[in-house]
Amino acid sequence: MSDQIIESLFKTGLFENISIVKNEKSLNITLKENPTIKYLEIELSSDSGFSNWLKGEKIHFTSEALNEQITENQLSTGNIFTEKKLEDFLLLLESKYSQAGYFNSEIIHNIEIDTQNRAGIELIVSQGNRATIDSFVSLAQIRFLKRNLLKLFKIGEPDMALINYFTNKDDFTDSKLRNGIEMMTANIF
């Protein structure tokens, strides 16, 4: 019976810890509530300066996009806080940065629980630099010229600096590479 009580209370997501002690004439249930979220602040940082401007580096997430993700992941003010929710949110952000080619992004988090059991969460997000392509070569010798195969990719070595500022051809993402490989495979076979 006590296992069923504990299980149903844990399913609510409201409690961090539950204990039940049976005495001869009583049943003592001790509950420790999960904190509610007091605030979640995110500081976005990226290297700035002339070189990043030339490279076309921009902050990947806007504040609006992050606020949307916070709401979708139930981490906004007033929601119940759990470490699992925060861990899932951090993994989601890291995944989105990696998909966009920011493989060296870093997220530092700090959580403070006040005396009223409210969680203040601070995240410092450093996106790092986008991976770029220095050299892109095809070793194909059969049926197609290398340059024809390389034209199938939307990524590659940078063009002239001024043209590359607009095309960002040397910005690497997994999806652009996979699309190029699919195009190459479709055209070869």
SSE diagram, text form:
Elements lengths: L1 H10 L3 E8 L4 E7 L2 E10 L4 H6 L7 H10 L10 H17 L6 E8 L4 E9 L19 H5 L10 H7 L6 H15 L1
Parallel strand pairs: 3-5
Antiparallel strand pairs: 1-2, 4-5
What this model shows, in words?
The chain is an alpha+beta fold and about 190 residues long. The chain folds into 3 domains: about 1-35, no CATH class; about 35-125, membrane protein fhac (Ubiquitin-like (UB roll), Roll), CATH 3.10.20; about 145-189, no CATH class. The chain has 7 helices and 5 strands. It has helices at about 1-10, 50-55, 65-70, 85-100, 145-150, 160-165, 175-189; strands at about 15-20, 25-35, 35-45, 105-115, 120-125. Strands 3-5-4 form a 3-stranded mixed sheet, with no helix packed on it. Strands 1-2 form a two-stranded antiparallel sheet. The protein is elongated, with a radius of gyration of 25 Å. The mean pLDDT is about 75.
Largest sheet: 3 strands, mixed
- Please state roughly what percent of the residues sit in beta strands, choosing from under 5%, 5-15%, 15-25%, 25-35%, 35-45% or over 45%: 15-25%
Per CATH, the architecture of the largest domain is Roll
Return the structural class: alpha+beta
How would the global form be characterised? Answer: elongated
CATH superfamily of the largest domain: membrane protein fhac
Q: Just give the CATH class of the largest domain.
A: Alpha Beta
Helix content: 25-40%
Order of helices and strands: HEEEHHHEEHHH
* Mean model confidence by pLDDT: 76
Alpha plus pi helix count? 7
Instruction: Give the strand order of the largest sheet, numbering strands 1, 2, ... along the chain.
Output: 3-5-4
State the CATH topology of the largest domain.
Ubiquitin-like (UB roll)
Indicate how many domains the architecture comprises: 3
Could you name the ranges where pLDDT drops below 50 across 5 or more consecutive residues? none
Number of strands: 5
Q: Determine Rg (CA atoms, Å).
A: 25 Å
- From the N-terminal CA to the C-terminal CA, the straight-line distance is 64 Å
